[in-house]
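From the shared-data thread, chain only:
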Amino acid sequence: MDRVPTGIDGLDELIEGGIPRRRMILVSGSTGTGKTIFSSQFIYRGATDYNEPGIFVTLDERPDTIREDMLQFGWDFRKLEEKGMIRIIDGTVSRVGIPSEEEYSLPETGFNLDKLLVEIIKSIKEMGAKRLVVDSLPALGFKYDTEVEIRKAILKMSYVLSRSGVTSIVTTEIPENSGTYSKYGVEEYVADGLIVLRYGALGGQTTRTLHVRKMRATKHSEHIHPLEITRERGIVVYPIDEV
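Structure, as tokens:
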């Protein structure tokens, strides 16, 4: 099976070399667990290490904030944007109905899933993108009455992204120490993989952890692995026997 290296040090060894190509992976976690860094690293390393153009759809943080924050790891998004290797789509301002100063953004005349997918498909074709991030799913603000409708909407997103040829990371939020895996309780069933990031106690110390809860067509580690956010390498995942 063709696989996409994540660019996350120590993760690919846990999932048979990478994510199955053209699949949608859900990365869930509470505040401060590293979801945005994880997805930014996936896009940045894809462009620099594997020559795969990537799209970062931000629905929570302003693009300039992401660019500034990622510079702490030496990841110059602006430079790669100018080379056509990375594109940031601003979905933040459309949620409040004001124009964006970004070159690529969602219409300020309202926000819904179909408009998002149209903009994504357009960008994929224009730049030949191979990777995609949507950060984060709850910011879409699904206005549906039932769990079935929410599940159908997420399934639609997964299908469209797969048909477009990209391998995608979609983030979602979970409450601290909730024992749940997603915001709506259905995302993990639709996604092809689920990676859970948590911040809690392990071995008497407070630390961040990563757990590959699900990865279709992959024999993956079932352990909870410590991870560290470093200035030099971004997120690093450690084998359990090193701890």
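The helical segments are 35-49, 63-70, 77-82, 113-127, 147-163, 187-190.
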